[in-house]
């Protein structure tokens, strides 16, 4: 249930996420060492267009990547087929996109 | 005949498309004995209705494959001693194919997918023209040769969990054949092949589980062939878009 | 029990039996030559392309492709190899058309045969050939040929009836033509009758009535037994080719009898008897490198002297050539032996002569037509092309060439045939009754009887023959045949019932076994594969005759017919004057 | 179920990649949910973050980092197999990816504790 397009999308989003995840982990390590608080996190991120772009692109990528991944898993283990499978993929990716967007906005907007 | 009088305890799957169960038989152990010998012995001496399939008995035709102790194998060339578990054996029909009866499966889906993957020659010449001169050492030819000795036994097909979960997935053998043809200088089907392996059941569904390569009795490497197809389709994906 | 009236019936235009080289090529060619809309059906005892012996071809495919070799030379080798018994027109067409067929295999079907470094086809010489002629794909040539043909057939709109066993050729009421073929759909156990305007039979003979044999398990002489019952003349039925080195691993394993490749002897392998002596030089100055029939007889003689290995054969030993070397050069064989528990590279492996190929078959003309309108026969089922011996590499050439010829001819003949013919319902019912015979008897173990038959044929109608032996053989076969009729099969579940098919296999084997022995009695000389201890001479080539067996009512009559030297007479050659006898060193 | 035909390294690598992907995909919404609280109820995020001091949570964090790392490295292994010239050492690469994931997550764990 994975044509070349979805395959490419999954791989490309993975490639996009790769540096972003590394960056995120770096920040986390740094943050954890400093002892973490809401205020500290927010003070760093809020109002920064760069962080918005950083986490925003991660959210876009991961919502596609994970939705495709789940699509495959659901198809192979639960036997769900098209068109239900397409709807599922869409719903999952929109849901992740929505939740992710909310989170990103929460931490980057003032 | 030098028989040692030990006995094998053989569980054999009995049933049809819909249902079945294991049945236990006791078979005299012999010095040189293959799984196929054991199965035939049961049919010829204990239960006349046991169904299974074989033809060449030397690993060339690929019609005798079964699940032996949970693993797909060619039975005519699997020595009992190699797989025996104590004195126990379990023999079942190949996984991932519909069962016709007992140990015989319907291999049509496997071959339908072989053709669906464009696993057939696309001629560039006729019988009235001379045979093409082809350098046997060229990289393309080496690539084509790597998978050419496939006996379409379906062992890889039944080892693969992606096949189990995804009814449309063309499977390792068909995709390997497509890759072989893709590298055949005489074949004009490159585009058709790329198209065929890029669809909903194509090479992109493979998760590189590698069971195909582990179990292929001819030591072929379908996993690699599939990875190469992914590479080729990726290339053509970007070429088309720029 | 099913009655003749509940036979499933359907019609087609062209019906093909078997998916070896003959069957597949017939299907492809028929599709190319028949008018648009022609229905083509291919029916086979196993799965398409996965049964029969074409897939098992190791050494390769004979074809004269230049480089000094010519069709004429190939033809002369074929006639000499067949000891002047071949039908010369058939042999000629075989050699001539092989050239086209091999181009077709490469260019249209997509086979890839081994190449020389310069990119041209690699050719080697099998025994009995005077040129490097054999095209091959490693030592697994058959897999390449049949897999590629299978793909072509599977991808075409051809009706496919797999696991359909032909059990009777059903003529029209007046007996002048073939109406159709009766099958058992093996998966369900039901009878199916298919009417067709043209039928090609390519069920591939198969001398599996011998204790040791090489062909695939599905081949049991069904085609020739059907042809015999239908009253068709069969020729050269005494000619059974033995391969000298079949694996010997005991009667309980199907590995026994399978071929250990010819090249082992060619490369310098030793044949040893129980006292580790290289005995072949006692029989021929070429030792292990003598031709198949000579080596087979050498081994057989040694076996009769009881100089035998553990399981009653002799040993082949390669280790003196260096185990590593052997492992590299014969990797396929070494691996196969290892899978069976034997060490070919470093140890000794037991071997025995094994029945390999059947030269005899239905009398056909060079267009594959038979005495019965609507029936065509090609491949190992057809007699005539090889005479008394088949050259290594001529088998697959024969089946692919003549399968294609049959397809072409049927495509043309079809245009002259208006409709399917009606069968003689009495014959149809009789065939159903025949197949159901065991259902009314008490079940017993059939395999034991098969072993008895194989033992009888091996001992009395085998590698070396005498009148007394063959007469004894005929009596033994007849007893076995009678006993078979008392053995039953439980009819409660006929779906994929192999035991029923074992019974039917035995029926065909018994019928043809006795014809082999009877034809053997009629040939009171020794030619090629047929060796008479009581008539060791070959007779003059000018006086060559071939045997023709025919069933009339309940007896089989065998007669002699003079060979027509339609192209070349004994002592002559069609090679131009001054051509060298041989272009290659004599080797295997 | 680990059936016999699955008992080999590359199949385990596949299973690990799938399970880690699945776990990450399930974890992600929760992660997003908590972060989004920053907008509406900053205190609850703080409460949550104090929780991260507890050892159980540390362990869970280690797990999370491991999952991410093993999926990450496994993902690169797959893309390398698919797009770079073929190598016969796929088993080694899979082992290296898993070992690397342990290393990274272990380091993370140790630094944090
Ligand atoms: C081990 C081995 C090695 C060989 N090596 C060589 C070689 O190197 N070179 C060479 O030239 N020749 C070789 N031969 C010989 C060669 O294989 C045969 O001559 C040739 O393949 C015969 O082709 P065919 O189409 O007539 O029959 P086959 O290929 O045997 O096909 C017969 C078909 O008919 C089917 N059939 C049988 N009975 C029935 C029935 N009742 N109803 C329906 N279908 C039926 C079978 O299932 C099969 O599909 C070898 C043979 C063997 C056994
Ligand atoms: C953190 C967020 C991520 C989530 C939630 C996630 C989730 C998933 C899921 C659910 C799958 C499907 C697994 C399967 O098919 O078996 C998957 C597959 C995949 N992931 Fe991720 N992933 C994430 C990050 C990454 C990263 C950073 C990479 C790359 C470096 C990556 C590379 C891949 C690849 C290559 C596949 C395809 C595997 C296959 O086809 O077998 N993923 N991912
Ligand atoms: S690739 Fe190997 S296992 Fe798969 S069908 Fe071919 S020979 Fe059998
Ligand atoms: S086992 Fe299946 S998932 Fe791919 S690598 Fe082989 S086809
Ligand atoms: S019987 Fe042909 S491969 Fe086993």
Automatic annotation (TrEMBL), chain A:
The chain crosses the membrane at residues 12-32, 52-73, 85-109. The keyword Transmembrane helix applies. Its cofactor is heme. The keyword Heme applies. Its main location: membrane. It is found in: Membrane. Keywords: Heme, Iron, Membrane, Metal-binding, Transmembrane, Transmembrane helix. It comes from the Bacteria. SUPFAM superfamilies: Fumarate reductase respiratory complex transmembrane subunits. Pfam families: Sdh_cyt. Membrane-anchoring subunit of succinate dehydrogenase (SDH). This is Succinate dehydrogenase. The lineage of its organism: Bacteria, Pseudomonadati, Pseudomonadota, Alphaproteobacteria, Rhodobacterales.
From TrEMBL, chain B:
Part of an enzyme complex containing four subunits: a flavoprotein, an iron-sulfur, cytochrome b-556, and a hydrophobic anchor protein. Belongs to the succinate dehydrogenase/fumarate reductase iron-sulfur protein family. It is an enzyme of class 1 (oxidoreductase). Pfam families: Fer2_3, Fer4_17. It comes from Pseudohalocynthiibacter aestuariivivens. The lineage of its organism: Bacteria, Pseudomonadati, Pseudomonadota, Alphaproteobacteria, Rhodobacterales. Residues 8-95 form the 2Fe-2S ferredoxin-type domain. NCBIfam families: dhsB. This is Succinate dehydrogenase iron-sulfur subunit. Pathway: Carbohydrate metabolism; tricarboxylic acid cycle; fumarate from succinate (bacterial route): step 1/1. Keywords: 4Fe-4S, Iron, Iron-sulfur, Metal-binding, Oxidoreductase. Its EC number is 1.3.5.1. Its cofactor is [4Fe-4S] cluster; [3Fe-4S] cluster; [2Fe-2S] cluster.
Automatic annotation (TrEMBL), chain C:
Keywords: Flavoprotein, Oxidoreductase. It comes from the Bacteria. Its cofactor is FAD. Residues 13-396 form the FAD-dependent oxidoreductase 2 FAD-binding domain. InterPro entries: FAD-dep_OxRdtase_2_FAD-bd, FAD/NAD-bd_sf, Fum_R/Succ_DH_flav-like_C_sf, Fum_Rdtase/Succ_DH_flav-like_C, SdhA/FrdA/AprA, Succ_DH/fumarate_Rdtase_cat_sf. Residues 450-572 form the Fumarate reductase/succinate dehydrogenase flavoprotein-like C-terminal domain. This is L-aspartate oxidase. It comes from Pseudohalocynthiibacter aestuariivivens.
From TrEMBL, chain D:
InterPro entries: SdhC_prok, SQR/QFR_C/D, Succ_DH_cytb556, SuccDH_FuR_B_TM-su. SUPFAM superfamilies: Fumarate reductase respiratory complex transmembrane subunits. It comes from the Bacteria. Keywords: Heme, Iron, Membrane, Metal-binding, Transmembrane, Transmembrane helix. Pfam families: Sdh_cyt. Part of an enzyme complex containing four subunits: a flavoprotein, an iron-sulfur protein, plus two membrane-anchoring proteins, SdhC and SdhD. The complex can form homotrimers. Belongs to the cytochrome b560 family. This is Succinate dehydrogenase cytochrome b556 subunit. It comes from Pseudohalocynthiibacter aestuariivivens. The gene is sdhC.
């Amino acid at each position: 249930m994975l044509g070349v397009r979805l395959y490419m999308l999954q791989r490309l989003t993975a490639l996009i996420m790769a540096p972003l995840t590394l960056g995120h982990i770096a920040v986390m390590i740094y943050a954890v060492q400093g002892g973490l608080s809401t205020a500290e996190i927010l003070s760093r991120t809020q109002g920064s267009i760069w962080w918005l772009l950083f986490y925003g692109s991660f959210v876009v990528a991961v919502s596609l990547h994970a939705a495709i991944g789940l699509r495959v898993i659901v198809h192979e283990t639960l036997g769900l087929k098209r068109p239900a499978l397409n709807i599922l993929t869409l719903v999952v990716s929109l849901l992740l996109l929505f939740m992710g967007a909310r989170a990103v906005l929460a931490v980057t907007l003032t | 005949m030098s028989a040692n009088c030990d006995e094998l305890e053989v569980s054999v799957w009995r049933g049809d498309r819909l249902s079945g169960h294991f049945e236990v038989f006791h078979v005299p152990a012999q010095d040189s004995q293959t799984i196929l010998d054991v199965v035939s012995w049961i049919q010829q001496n204990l239960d006349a209705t046991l169904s299974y399939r074989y033809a060449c008995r030397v690993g060339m035709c690929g019609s005798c494959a079964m699940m032996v102790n949970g693993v797909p194998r060619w039975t005519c060339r699997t020595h009992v001693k190699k797989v025996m578990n104590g004195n126990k054996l379990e023999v079942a029909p190949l996984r991932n194919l519909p069962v016709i009866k007992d140990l015989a499966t319907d291999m049509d889906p496997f071959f339908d997918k072989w053709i669906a993957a464009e696993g057939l020659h696309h001629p560039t010449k006729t019988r009235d023209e001379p045979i093409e001169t082809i350098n046997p050492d060229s990289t393309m030819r080496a690539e084509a040769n790597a998978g050419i000795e496939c006996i379409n036994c379906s062992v890889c097909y039944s080892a693969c969990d992606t096949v189990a979960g995804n009814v449309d997935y063309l499977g390792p053998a068909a995709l390997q054949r497509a890759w072989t043809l893709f590298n055949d200088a005489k074949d004009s089907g490159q585009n058709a092949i790329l198209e065929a392996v890029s669809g909903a059941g194509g090479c992109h569904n493979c998760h590189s589980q590698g069971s195909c390569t582990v179990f292929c009795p001819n030591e072929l490497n379908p996993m690699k062939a599939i990875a190469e197809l992914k590479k080729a389709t990726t290339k053509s994906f970007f070429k088309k878009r720029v | 029990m099913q009655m003749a009236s509940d036979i499933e019936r359907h019609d087609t235009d062209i019906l093909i039996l078997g998916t070896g080289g003959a069957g597949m090529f017939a299907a492809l060619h028929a599709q190319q030559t028949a008018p648009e809309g022609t229905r083509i059906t291919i029916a086979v005892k196993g799965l398409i392309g996965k049964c029969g012996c074409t897939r098992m071809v190791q050494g390769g495919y004979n074809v004269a492709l230049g480089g000094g070799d010519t069709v004429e030379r190939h033809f002369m080798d074929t006639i000499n190899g067949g000891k002047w018994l071949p039908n010369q027109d058939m042999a000629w067409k075989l050699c001539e058309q092989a050239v086209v067929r091999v181009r077709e295999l490469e260019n249209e079907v997509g086979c890839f045969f081994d190449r020389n470094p310069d990119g041209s086809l690699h050719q080697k010489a099998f025994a009995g050939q005077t040129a490097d002629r054999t095209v091959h794909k490693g030592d697994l040539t058959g897999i390449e040929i049949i897999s590629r043909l299978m793909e072509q057939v599977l991808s075409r709109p051809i009706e496919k009836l797999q696991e359909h066993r032909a059990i009777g050729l059903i003529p029209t009421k007046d007996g002048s033509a073939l109406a159709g073929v009766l099958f058992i759909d093996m998966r369900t156990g039901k009878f199916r009758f298919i009417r067709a305007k043209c039928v090609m039979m390519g069920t591939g003979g198969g001398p599996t009535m011998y204790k040791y044999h090489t062909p695939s398990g599905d081949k049991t002489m069904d085609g020739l037994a059907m042809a015999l019952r239908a009253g068709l003349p069969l020729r050269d039925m005494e000619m059974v080719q033995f391969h000298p080195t079949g694996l010997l691993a005991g009667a309980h394993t199907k590995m026994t009898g399978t071929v250990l490749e010819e090249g082992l002897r060619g490369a310098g392998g030793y044949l040893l008897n129980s006292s580790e002596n290289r005995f072949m030089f006692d029989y021929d100055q070429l030792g292990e490198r003598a031709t198949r029939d000579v080596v087979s007889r050498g081994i057989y003689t040694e076996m009769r002297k009881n100089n035998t290995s553990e399981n009653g054969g002799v040993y082949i030993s390669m280790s003196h050539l260096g185990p590593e070397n052997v492992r590299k050069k014969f990797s396929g064989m070494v691996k196969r032996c290892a899978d069976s528990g034997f060490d070919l590279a470093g140890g000794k492996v037991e071997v025995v002569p094994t029945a390999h190929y059947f030269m005899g078959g239905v009398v056909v003309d060079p267009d594959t037509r038979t005495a019965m309108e609507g029936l065509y026969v090609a491949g190992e089922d057809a007699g005539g092309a090889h005479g008394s011996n088949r050259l290594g590499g001529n088998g697959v050439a024969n089946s692919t060439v003549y399968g294609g010829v049959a397809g072409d001819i049927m495509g043309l003949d079809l245009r002259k045939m208006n409709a399917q013919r009606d069968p003689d319902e009495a014959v149809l019912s009789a065939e159903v009754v025949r197949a159901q015979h065991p259902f009314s008897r008490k079940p017993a173990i059939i395999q034991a009887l098969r072993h008895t038959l194989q033992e009888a044929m091996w001992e009395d109608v085998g590698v070396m023959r005498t009148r007394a032996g063959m007469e004894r053989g005929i009596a033994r076969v007849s007893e076995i045949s009678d006993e078979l009729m008392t053995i039953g099969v439980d009819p409660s579940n006929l779906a994929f019932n192999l035991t029923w098919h074992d019974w039917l296999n035995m029926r065909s084997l018994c019928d043809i076994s006795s014809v082999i022995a009877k034809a053997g009695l009629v040939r009171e000389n020794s030619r090629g594969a047929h060796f008479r201890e009581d008539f060791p001479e070959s007779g003059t080539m000018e006086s060559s005759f071939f045997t023709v067996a025919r069933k009339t009512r309940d007896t089989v009559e065998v007669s002699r017919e003079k060979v027509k030297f339609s192209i070349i007479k004994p002592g002559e050659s069609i090679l131009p004057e001054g051509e060298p006898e041989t272009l290659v060193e004599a080797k295997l | 179920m680990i059936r016999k035909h699955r008992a080999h390294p590359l199949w385990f690598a596949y299973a690990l990649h799938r399970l880690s992907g699945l776990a990450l995909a399930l974890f992600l919404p929760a992660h997003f949910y908590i972060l989004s609280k920053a907008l509406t109820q900053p205190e609850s995020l703080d409460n949550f973050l104090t929780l991260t001091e507890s050892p159980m949570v540390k362990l869970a964090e280690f797990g999370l980092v491991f999952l991410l790392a093993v999926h990450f490295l496994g993902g690169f292994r797959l893309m390398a197999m698919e797009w770079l010239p073929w190598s016969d050492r796929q088993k080694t690469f899979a082992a290296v990816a898993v070992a690397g994931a342990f290393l990274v997550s272990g380091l993370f764990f140790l630094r944090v504790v």
